[in-house]
Structures are given as structure tokens and as C-alpha cells.
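re the bet — no i am not wrong, look at it urself. input seq straight from the record:
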Amino acid sequence: MRRRAAVGILCLAVVAVGIWWLLTRGGSDVAAQTLPGIPANAFEMTVESVHDGDTLRAHVAVPNAVVTDAESTRVRLIGVDTPEISPAPECWGDEATARLNAMLPAGSTVWAAADRDAVDQYGRHLLYVWTPDGRFVNAELVREGAGTVMVFAPNTRHETLLRSLEAEASAAGRGLWGAC
């Protein structure tokens, strides 16, 4: 009887390890599953235009503690730096801008949340941004190789995630990692 119980426990352990292995061996699939969803403190914004791959112009639906008026504001995505498009386009600058435009076309609704510092020295709002269906835009740009990680303290909430996505993109030669 004890022998059967031991064999049964061993079989369950083997099955559990097998399931764990199958779930964790997927690389970017695992990263995609761990991307944070829209946080409870996020607020709604409407995209007016995309300036480049990491900067856009938007306005809030309802003024809040982060964006205090409903006028147009410049938004700089936290944690990601894409190649410049002016004065002359850098390698992958046009592609990064096109990617952000595809994810956040003019007129689209987004959800945004600040980290610790909400405004930079240029007066831009520093924000993490999500699409209404829950895609974390900052992370997707890094994962696709549209940009690299650039973090300034104290806005470090998602630094570890972004750095792991950058390592994956670089190793896979995605986007700028395979072209520049």
C-alpha cells in the first residue's frame, strides 16, 4: 500500500514538473503573460498625434492629480527610448514612429499612469500607457525592438521587466537589434 502511494506521489511530481517546464520554456510567451495590465490608478486620455516612437500628444478626458487640465499635453513614454526622426532619421526611427502610430492612432483612447515623477525638465508628462484592450505600450515597443530601455530614477517601477524584454529582443535580432 505504501509503495503504491509513493509511486502515485512520484507520478504527480513528474507531471507537475513537466507542466512547469512547458509553461516556462516559451521565452517571450512567458514575458507576454507577465506584462502588467491597466492599473487601478490609470486615467483615460485621447491621442491627438504621435511625434516619434516614444513621444505623443494627448489630452485627458477628466483632469486629475497627474494631468491637471484638459488641454493638449506632450507625453513621453517612461522607460523606452526610440531612435530620433529629426533633424535626420536615425536607424529605425521611422519604423518606431510608425509602430507607435499603429498602436495609438490619432483619436484613440489610451489609459495612462505615472510613476513617481510625472513631469520631466521639458514639461512633458512621463507616463506608462496601455491600449483599451490592456496592451502595455511601453513594454511592447521594447519587446518588438522598436526602442531600447532608458530609465531615470525614481521612475523605475517596470525597469526589470523592460530590461528582460530588451535582452530578448536583442538576442532575437528584433527591430533595431537586427537592422542597426
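see?? The helical segments are 2-24, 28-33, 93-103, 137-143, 159-172, 176-179. told u. also The chain has one domain: 36-175. so pay up
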